[in-house]
Amino acid sequence: MDNSSVLEHPVWMEIEQESYQLKLDYELIPYKRDAGFRAPDELKKVHSLGRSPLLELEDRETGKKKILAESGYIFQYVLNHFDKTKSLGNEDSDKSEEIQYYLHYVEGSLQPPLLIELLLSMVQTAAIPFPFSYITRKVAEKIGEKYSRGEVKNQFDFIESQISKNCGYLVDGKLSAADILMSFPVDSAFKRQFADPKQYTATDKWLKNLKTLDSYKISKNKAEAYGEEC
Ligand SMILES: N[C@@H](CCC(=O)N[C@@H](CS)C(=O)NCC(=O)O)C(=O)O
């Protein structure tokens, strides 16, 4: 990526060169959600699906640009092209495959029930006039009860067991891309009370531990500087 495009933010500029997990320079470009909690139309100018995250890459020598979508694919690309020392991957091929598995697992299995819970919570608080609100809330409650709540529990039980048997991380007792990509949905689920950190003590400890990383703090500072709550 082109160094000249890095934004000047003195608060974290001092330490960022040494502290990035992969020692990469990047610029964060925020796209604010609209009143309906959807991505703004401008995001469609970057990628026609208009969803985030997206990764824009530019080759310093040739000027060739690439736009990557899908968080798991973006992470896989970053590992393949920028993690030459495998600091977020693994030298062991079985362990490396486990990391790849989590890059798919996040969007394929964990996010769907969390998204359903989010939509149901929006239905519960939507400004719908009585008596329709009574019906919509009952339907939302039933869907949560019959499917998403149990499925969130299923997923969190799985995550808890994996972290417990891998010495506090998802793969091989050490930090990898799997932990980083998984931290976002797990953190959101705890914050939105879709899962209770007190019931998932290993997962809670894992998340708190990730939050002590300099690289985590730097990205959090960047996002907060743009008005994002982290
Ligand atoms: N499977 C996609 C999901 C992308 C996605 O849904 N992103 C959300 C933000 S986390 C979004 O852009 N939402 C705005 C919208 O749907 O309008 C990925 O992993 O990147």
Automatic annotation (TrEMBL):
One GO term in the molecular function aspect is: transferase activity
GST N-terminal domain residues are: 22-79
Q: By its UniProt entry, which Gene3D superfamilies does this protein fall under? A: 1.20.1050.10, Glutaredoxin (3.40.30.10)
Record SUPFAM superfamilies: GST C-terminal domain-like (SSF47616), Thioredoxin-like (SSF52833)
The segment(s) forming the Glutathione S-transferase C-terminal domain are: 133-210
Q: Which residues form the signal peptide?
A: none
| Domain of life, per lineage | Eukaryota
Q: Does the keyword NADP apply?
A: no
Q: Is Transport tagged as a keyword?
A: no
What keywords are assigned to this protein?
A: Oxidoreductase, Peroxidase, Transferase
Provide the family line: Belongs to the GST superfamily.
* Full protein name: Bifunctional glutathione transferase/peroxidase
